[in-house]
Amino acid sequence: MKRIFGSLILLLFFTLSDLSAQDPVGNVPFTFGEELSFQVSYGWLNLADAKLQVAKRPQDQNDKPHYKIDVYGKTKGAATIFGKVNDNWGTYLDVETILPSLSYRHIEEGKYRKHEFVHFDQKNKKATMKLFDKENRNLKETKDFDLPGQVQDMVSAFYYLRSKDLRDLKQGEVILIRGFFDKEIYNIKLIYEGTETLETNLGKKETYIFSPQLPKNKLFRGEFPVKVWVTKDKNKIPVKIKANLFIGSLNLDIISAKGLKNN
User: Fold this and answer.
1) pTM, rounded to two decimals
2) pLDDT tens per residue, range 187-200
3) Cβ count within 10 A of residue 198
4) Longest Cα pair distance anywhere in the chain, in angstroms?
5) Which residues contact residue 91 at a Cβ distance below 8 angstroms, ignoring those fewer than 6 apart?
6) N or C, which end of the chain is more exposed by having fewer CB within 10 Å?
7) What is the pLDDT of residue 53?
């Protein structure tokens, strides 16, 4: 189970990253206090709970209001036998530009620990990473990076996409993703596969379907191992993710959605 949640986060946000970092932001379909809860399962086994949460009030960064957005993942039940996971990924997203000013990761997976902060200077195309020790007390490393332009982090990217107009996408259309994660700029192809009506815990939903082209790895099977279903409504929330592993498949299904802007 170790590193599974981190891999799911990568899948979710590789799949739902920005269409183009320079595109203007439209109507933002989320608001303060939104909370999306998910269940992660492998076959009949419920492995973990995951949550995407927007803080109830604006938070200041660089004297500007931001959305503080956190993603939490925690193993439960029998899955803890394989190693306990208690992860928190987050971002401070500029209310006006929908670009991140700060991202962070607090990872606890078995004995593995990582505490990382990345400060973004979107105007001057710079990023500064700060890595702390296992107790998140002492600074271990600081490193500066040049950016090719405006970028998203792994959490902000999904919320940026939700602000885009997806209605004119054509089936089979390829979208190039650009963002900054783990000291690198990533560029991955995203395939729009069309729409589908899906039964969910929130009821029957019309959805958009996306598949990312992922680099070869030891965990997932095939060139397009992941599908993500996003509601075809004003909220544009993910309701299901399916990842084909080398043995079986991993599913992330929505359980509840609170504080939605559009009801």
Assistant:
1) 0.87
2) 767 788 999 999 99
3) 18
4) 50
5) 68, 69, 100, 102, 103, 104, 153, 155, 156, 159
6) C
7) 96
